[in-house]
Amino acid sequence: MELKGKRALVTGASKGLGAAVARRLAEAGADVAVHYRGDRAGAEETARAVVAAGRQALLIPADLARPKEAEELVARVADAWGGLDLLVNNAGVAPVRPWDQVTPAEWAEVLAANLSGPFYVMRAALPLLRAGREPAVVNVGSVVSFNGGAFGPAYAAAKAGLVGLTRSAAREWGPLGIRVNCVAPGPIESPLARALPAPVLEAMKAQTPLRRLGTFAEAAEVICWLLSPAAAFVTGQTVVVDGGRVMS
Ligand SMILES: NC(=O)c1ccc[n+]([C@@H]2O[C@H](COP(=O)([O-])OP(=O)(O)OC[C@H]3O[C@@H](n4cnc5c(N)ncnc54)[C@H](OP(=O)(O)O)[C@@H]3O)[C@@H](O)[C@H]2O)c1
């Protein structure tokens, strides 16, 4: 995968999937703006890995549930690099909440982090991407947008919304030369998946043709492929990375 000289922004890169994507992008030759919310130590570790791969790292905090901070995040990338080529909207939260336990505040928080944040970041980044080199966006969704999932209504609705947001942007931005896709992972070996009750997790593995959870590296590989020129004619798609549990 060749991304030499590309300028990338990865949200939620202090840990987990975002950190894996940032590392993979740097290995492929991209400079990476490492966004985080509260975990500065995690973000610094990701940034060190980017620098160890011979690329530049920017470290930028923002709470993406706040539109102004999403805009400031993009402005800081513009100030530092004067442009942006690749954007990965990865930051998200997934509290496990059945329908009768979702408070209005939590509904709003989950929608803000998983859906509104990507919208505000994308809107702010549009002028930069328009002027970018082979610009591409990947939004990190989830298979819950297809199967309802086990996290409850707010997360499922937010991730389903992200599929619509992806398609809307792909349609409107395609003529501008900007590709926009979504990657929908199934459960990955992670604290987020481990928050599910053990029987739910075991049932998930049993229903998965490949009989296991995925890894961050496996999901990151697909995200980086979609960002790369190898996927130059792919836009508006949601690629499921879940060991074959969801098939369409
Ligand atoms: N893990 C899975 O099994 C799985 C499966 C399907 C989809 N996904 C999706 O993949 C993405 C990453 O998942 P993960 O397991 O790596 O999650 P994670 O380990 O919990 O990391 C989440 C990241 O998002 C950031 N974040 C959360 N809320 C934020 C907010 N309001 N504003 C800004 N940043 C915020 C966190 O920042 P700080 O820690 O710095 O505060 C952190 O960097 C999420 O979109 C998730 O929905 C995960």
Radius of gyration from the CA trace? Answer: 17 Å
**Uncertain stretches:** none
* Strand count: 7
> What name is given to the CATH topology?
Rossmann fold
Identify every distinct bound molecule in the structure, by name, code or SMILES. Answer: NADP nicotinamide-adenine-dinucleotide phosphate
In the CATH scheme, the class would be Alpha Beta
- So, CATH architecture? 3-Layer(aba) Sandwich
Main traits of this protein?
47% helix; 248 residues; binds NADP nicotinamide-adenine-dinucleotide phosphate; seven-stranded parallel β-sheet; alpha/beta; Rossmann fold; single chain
List the helices and strands and how they pair.
Layout: E1 7-10, H1 16-27, E2 31-36, H2 40-52, E3 57-61, H3 67-81, E4 86-89, H4 104-130, E5 136-140, H5 144-147, H6 153-173, E6 179-185, H7 191-194, H8 198-206, H9 216-227, E7 238-241
Parallel strand pairs: 1-2, 1-4, 2-3, 4-5, 5-6, 6-7
Helix pairs in contact: 1-2, 1-9, 3-4, 4-6
Bound molecules: NADP nicotinamide-adenine-dinucleotide phosphate (NAP).
In short:
This protein is α/β, with parallel strands linked by helices and 248 residues long.
Protein described:
The protein has 248 residues and is an alpha/beta fold. It has a single domain, classed as NAD(P)-binding Rossmann-like Domain (Rossmann fold, 3-Layer(aba) Sandwich). The protein is built from 9 helices and 7 strands. Helix 1 crosses helix 9 and helix 3 runs parallel beside helix 4. The longest helix is centred in the middle third of the chain and has 27 residues. The mean pLDDT is 96. The site of NADP nicotinamide-adenine-dinucleotide phosphate (NAP) has 28 residues, from helix 1, helix 4 and helix 7.
